[in-house]
Amino acid sequence: MHLTRRHALAAAPLTAAALAGCSRGESASGGSTTMIVPFAPGGGSDQSGRALADGLERATGDTVSVENIQGGSGAIGYSEFLGMHGDGSKLLATETALMALALTQDVRFSYEDFTPIFKAGDDFAILVTRPDADYGTGMDLVDAARERSILVGVSGATSLDEILFSLIEGDQQMEFDRVPYESGGEVLAALLGGHIEAGLLNPSEVLGQLQSGDLKALCALAYERYEADELADIPTGLEQGLDVAFAQFRAVIAPGGIDEEARQRWVEAAREYAGTEEYRTYLADNFLVEAPLYDKELGEYFEQYNEELAEAFT
């Protein structure tokens, strides 16, 4: 199954304190904002949220703090964020779980309950294993899983890696055995510890281990090879016969019900941030494909993404 999402994915650049507290009458500068990350520290979502918070803090002069609210594959963090309705001093670094949770679990929220602010770019995943593994390509791993149990780690039942493994299974008519974790950081630790045989991780999560030789890349589930020199030699799954490519968005949302002034200030702050060198550095450091969207345009993107993701779960 080859899902086309060339528009998608990225992390949450937007926020920070430029708008901190705007809905409460505080000034757009010198305020204090909390960026919620609904996953454990150490994974791609956490790294992205922190990088965006730091960049926006430098760009705006506001204080932007990061708070991890983990559990339930992101459901606990999103649920708490739902309760922050109308609070313009809160933001959340969001990704695929925003839609996937509502599509697969009994949660009280959907993407429509929040205020879309800014989508920074598209984030693809790399299929990795230990360097002494017998297989050297993604198709080798698939073939091995036809013969015996292959344990793979997933960072939640609605995570990008869970979606991608499911798409591979649908494309190749086979199955992996999953071990669930709370974050990409935990998947990485399990790989290094030899507790699982393979995982799908974002480049920013695993680059150090690839460069040190502690892990090796089998393929990238992307439409094209990475342009960055560090990753340019990694073939795509498409090159190896895996007809799967899917991008996770990384974006920033605000609670639902914030006033119009706060919403506009957040969007303006996001546009300003996207024009800075810090934003370019964020994209490069996290190996994201630039794909900025704002405000209502992002809301339309969320609607389309939700429709396509619903098809992936059927």
UniProtKB/TrEMBL annotation:
InterPro entries: BUG (IPR005064), Bug_dom1 (IPR042100)
Recorded superkingdom: Bacteria
Protein name stated in the entry: Tricarboxylic transport membrane protein
CDD domains hit by this protein: PBP2_Bug_TTT
Family: Belongs to the UPF0065 (bug) family.
